[in-house]
Amino acid sequence: MSTTEKTPEKKRVHVKTWGCQMNVYDSERMTGLLKPLGYETTETPEEADLVILNTCHIREKAAEKVYSELGRLKDVKARGGTIAVAGCVAQAEGAEIQARAPQVDFVIGPQSYHKLPEIIAKTARGTGENLYTEFDVDEKFDALEEGRQAEGYSAFVTVQEGCDKFCTFCVVPYTRGAEVSRNADAVTLEVRQLAQQGVREITLLGQNVNAWHGAPPVGASGEAWGLGELVRHLARIDGIDRIRFTTSHPKDMDDGLIAAFGEEPKLMPYLHLPVQAGNDRVLKAMNRAHTAESYLRQIEAVRAVRPDIAISGDMIVGFPGEDDAAFEDTMALVREVGYASCFSFKYSRRPGTPGAAMPKQVPEDVKSERLQRLQALLNEQRHAFDRAQVGRTLDILFEKPGRLDGQLLGKSPYLQSVHVIAPESLLGQIVPIRIEEAGPNSLRGVLV
Ligand code: SAH
Ligand code: SF4
Ligand code: F3S
Description:
Blueprint: E1 11-17, H1 21-34, E2 39-41, E3 50-55, H2 60-71, H3 74-78, E4 82-86, H4 87-100, E5 106-108, H5 116-125, E6 131-132, H6 137-144, E7 154-158, E8 160-161, H7 172-176, E9 180-181, H8 184-196, E10 201-205, E11 213-214, E12 225-226, H9 227-234, E13 242-246, H10 255-263, E14 270-272, H11 280-285, H12 292-305, E15 310-317, H13 324-337, E16 341-346, H14 364-387, E17 393-401, E18 407-411, E19 417-421, E20 430-438, E21 443-447
Parallel strand pairs: 1-2, 1-3, 3-4, 4-5, 5-6, 7-10, 10-13, 14-15, 15-16, 19-21
Antiparallel strand pairs: 8-9, 11-12, 17-18, 17-20, 18-19, 20-21
Helix pairs in contact: 9-10, 10-12, 13-14
This protein binds S-adenosyl-L-homocysteine (SAH), iron/sulfur cluster and FE3-S4 cluster (F3S).
FE3-S4 cluster (F3S) binds next to α1, α4 and α7.
């Protein structure tokens, strides 16, 4: 009888991801942590031994999806498979998940992913708990540092987690905990490793990425760094040609970061800077710590150093107390900014947030009507921005084959999808492309 088993038995894990890029990144890291245990990823839950649902709690609709998905996973359970719920619903409603969905083997919050291998082993032995939702961000960053496998030419890199802003509509401060910055040396090491694996573009991620601050890298002099300094530092890494960051808060948009858009050519001309609303009374009730005017001045400052920059944002309509006049202020702000792209949502009342208990909740049909008007305007603006690229030559980073034969799909500096008939040898290359046409969701270009 053998007592040791060197190679772990082959198993399959299926991860389904909802929510923001932070979750996309976390899912990738979870599968990375499971690889040494013998887990290969599979696209379908049907053939998985382990299913992880990486969930989002931001709006009610997002949160409810996990329960309908769990209903569909009966087969996994019948085959003796394991079901885990991760992400922000796990963090916010762990006990409720267990009550509503007893088929779930364990619930794991975003701060506990580094413990995943240990939890899986315990679950297999039948000695696991079923709720892992303590906050322990530092340890998580440490455990995630090593041995990352890059996929493709563009990669996310988490540099900051959590949020201290407590906007009154938002669950993130409760699901992700306080703001923590990863240190510059750890980030640099990860980006170097990615560059060695062929990555050309990195997107620095954080719930409030521009709140990033940290001690300078070992050997560098000076005081604590902000994101602008980190960007400039990472730009010196050979092989990395494009840097992006998301998501930013207006409060943390400092001069150093704004200046970097004008001075660091590797920092791409795209800024996602959510404002949420255009009326100061509503912004105050949202606890946003900025006014419509201060936001517009920031956009002006960014455009002064990088006139072609694509501005993106997030908007909420129907926050409690938003009357018709306040909504018109949002429309006016949008007209003044001219967004290249912008997400917009109906306010969703989230349990435990101050907004949920506020008077003057806006009726659903009013929210729908406002959202429709806002989205019509935002769509127009997006198409106008896209059409303005026609005839220009843009540098495109080719990331993957397109849908049609002989076609490649890439990204413009402004984060637009561009498809081009081009040889596969150009994958991973940054190539000048003349834009010929702006479609509803992408641009078409030709090699010059
Ligand atoms: N930290 C980021 C993103 C947070 S979540 C930021 O501050 O910009 C992404 C977007 O979801 C928010 O910008 C907001 O527009 C939206 N959102 C958050 N809570 C919401 C709620 N309760 N109802 C509707 N939209 C919400
Ligand atoms: Fe939520 Fe506001 Fe924090 Fe963004 S800044 S994550 S909207 S609380
Ligand atoms: Fe959703 Fe959590 Fe991201 S609530 S938006 S997955 S931080």
